[in-house]
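[step 3/7] inverse_fold.run input=structure_tokens len=335
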């Protein structure tokens, strides 16, 4: 089966038409993510990201549905009140970008979303809004760094989870100066292209070192990939498994990571493994084997409790660089 953008959009439209007949409170539906960008496939797999806007409060915030092994629907459910202060969405690094594209609208009763879209897109790319989107990540990264630096006793498991989260937040400070927030599968490849356009390509090397890439290569990937997959599969047997790592999204992550590894892009493999493995372990807190595997994996990458100070120092430097870029941007546009 040949998967392309037109086919995926048709799948989305057909699904929306079925849901509209059943769910009378649907106000609007729009596309987000890679399908709307025209480059949806990675490793022959993709998901179709949709946002459903409801008049009534939706019973679940997110659902993932199987289409085929390689294709899934990833649906966020919003209440209409989320869009009341629509001008604020210009500073939303996640959904504001998608709302700027008229072709992303798949359902719009009474042209409600068209009005929202016109308001959001009118000044979405103004310097003050670009700065505000990046500043959100910068402020959060610095706050999280202070939490990491707090001398009070924190479990290593919680500390390293916050460290990884902070690395992602700091990376988005920089990436959002010329695009939307980074996605999991293309986190590193997109970051590289963004910093290249900012003439700051060495930041890619700094980011990969923060994630332990210097200790990760072909042999490490072959060793840890089946362990990672087993953890995700086991997590799917739990009722509290995150929709993000649902079994219907197995190909979405596994095939994309395999494709990156086949290209030798092991630096790009680590982030999707981090994100999904950590979520899987969180479902399996009573099964120590899976946490131990996760801890052993981190240790092979150089993440050990005795190295906290060095990790903090390097992360601080990376956050500093994002803050300097923001300051330069602010001064350039007299904000």
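[step 3/7] decode complete -> sequence:
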């Amino acid at each position: 089966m040949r998967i392309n953008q037109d086919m995926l959009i048709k799948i989305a439209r057909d699904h929306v038409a079925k849901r509209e007949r059943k769910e009378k409170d649907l106000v609007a539906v729009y596309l987000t993510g890679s399908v709307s960008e025209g480059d949806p496939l990675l490793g022959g797999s993709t998901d179709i990201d949709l946002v459903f806007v409801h008049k009534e409060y939706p019973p679940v915030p997110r659902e993932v549905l199987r289409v085929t092994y390689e294709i899934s629907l990833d649906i966020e459910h919003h209440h209409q009140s989320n869009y009341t202060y629509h001008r604020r969405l210009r500073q939303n690094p996640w959904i504001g970008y998608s709302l700027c594209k008229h072709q992303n609208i798949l359902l719009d009763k009474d042209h409600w979303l068209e009005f929202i879209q016109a308001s959001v897109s009118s000044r979405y790319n103004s310097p003050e809004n670009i700065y505000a989107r990046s500043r959100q990540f910068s402020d959060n990264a610095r706050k999280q760094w202070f939490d990491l630096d707090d001398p009070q006793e924190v479990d290593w498991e919680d500390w390293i989870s916050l460290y990884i989260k902070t690395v992602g937040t700091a990376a988005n400070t920089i990436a959002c100066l010329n695009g939307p927030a980074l996605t999991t599968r293309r986190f590193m490849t997109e970051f590289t292209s963004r910093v290249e356009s900012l003439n700051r390509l060495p930041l890619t090397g700094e980011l990969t070192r923060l994630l332990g890439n210097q200790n990760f290569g072909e042999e490490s990937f072959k060793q840890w990939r089946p362990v990672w997959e087993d953890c995700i599969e086991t997590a799917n047997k739990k009722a509290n498994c995150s929709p993000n790592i649902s079994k219907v999204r197995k190909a979405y992550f596994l095939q994309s990571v395999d494709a990156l590894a086949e290209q030798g892009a092991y630096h790009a493999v680590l982030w999707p493994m981090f994100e999904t493995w950590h979520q899987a372990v969180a479902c399996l807190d009573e099964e120590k084997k899976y946490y131990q595997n996760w801890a052993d994996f981190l240790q092979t990458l150089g993440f050990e409790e005795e190295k906290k100070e060095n990790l903090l120092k390097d992360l601080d430097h990376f956050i500093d660089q994002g803050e300097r870029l923001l300051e330069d941007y602010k001064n350039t546009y007299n904000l």
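[step 4/7] annotate
The longest strand covers residues 46-54.
Residues 308-332 form the longest helix (25 residues).
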